[in-house]
Amino acid sequence: MAKTHRDRIIEAASALLTEGGRDAVSTRAVSAAAGVQAPAIYRVFGDKQGLLDAVAGHGFQTYLRSKKDNPVTDDPVADLRRGWDLHVGFGLAHPALYSLIYGDPRPGESPAARQASEILSGMIHRIAEAGRLAMTEERAALLVHAAGRGITLTLISMPEEQRDPALSATARDAVIATITTGPPPGATPDGGPVAAAVALRAVLPRTTALNAPERALLADWLDRIATSG
């Protein structure tokens, strides 16, 4: 199948990003590398930020394909631990791309970062369903995201020979210990009222024993219990 203008432009921009970082992805350089006129870039992507978002999305698909090596198991906490390692490993293997996705201080998230957040939220939700989450899903997801992003960007900023290989694992275990509670799957959870409320809140949409107003009221009560800790 012949490559489209869009394909050639994204591939050229991705190569420039890998070789020289974000500053190397200029309209002139991309148009020359892709063999297209500069106006074609604006017609396809709107502006340079649109191009960068497309490059980030293209590169993120590589990350998603690598996640096939992180299958879902019966232990959602162990899955989150492996997911952290995969995330950090991807960032160190693709520092320019990772910095493009996560290093931009502009408000909001890039489409690629939003997709990653949705995957993380799903992992956190499974921990909540298992009765092993010690705080609300939203807070846990934000904490894992902030810590993982910070550790990865910190390691990227360091010379490779100076990186502490234990830094990521230490942060990972500390964060997971903070957001989780209770024994491994198969045992009776003992995380107190917060973990119980979070677990019930996670599965509340499935219940048919309550009508909509009753579910809304119970959800409010559970949220108050979950945030009280």
Automatic annotation (TrEMBL):
Q: Which residues bind DNA?
A: 26-45
Q: Does the keyword DNA-binding apply?
A: yes
Q: Which PROSITE patterns match?
A: HTH_TETR_2
UniProt cross-references to Pfam families, sorted A to Z: TetR_N
Q: Where is the HTH tetR-type domain?
A: 3-63
Q: Does the keyword Nucleotidyltransferase apply?
A: no
Question: Which controlled-vocabulary keywords does the entry list?
Answer: DNA-binding
Task: List, alphabetically, the SUPFAM superfamilies matched.
Answer: Homeodomain-like, Tetracyclin repressor-like, C-terminal domain
Question: What is the designated name of this protein?
Answer: TetR/AcrR family transcriptional regulator
